[in-house]
Amino acid sequence: MHTTVSFDRNLPLVGVNEKGQHTFFDATLDPSTPAMYASPMEIMLQSLAGCSMMDIISILAKMRKKVITLDATLDAERAETHPKVFTSIHVRYKLSSPDCTTAELEKAAGLSMDKYCSVAAMLKASGCKVTWEAEVVGG
Question: Nearest-CA neighbor of 37 among 9, 12, 74?
């Protein structure tokens, strides 16, 4: 895996991966000018959701369950001193499906968080407490 991140006189930073896809990183350096893009830590938090959701969608597909929508809401706490790492993250998954039970979604989410999701594994290895819950609503 290879990527580059560049700064050209002004924010945002621009990341480019091997496929030529771009990621923009921003921060608020001047409180009167809001950032246009997510910060690196916000992107890290979104990456946890994206990684685990891709796992969950794949696992549910193997279970032959129909996924209409899947959303993740994340709440995180960070250390008060530098480096301000994540100390805890809670993920709430909400699945819309006509044929998936809460138990099946919980199984898929558990497999993701405990076995497959690389982002979750890295966060946990750093000492971050990662918890989750799951809810199924009708499709």
Answer: 12
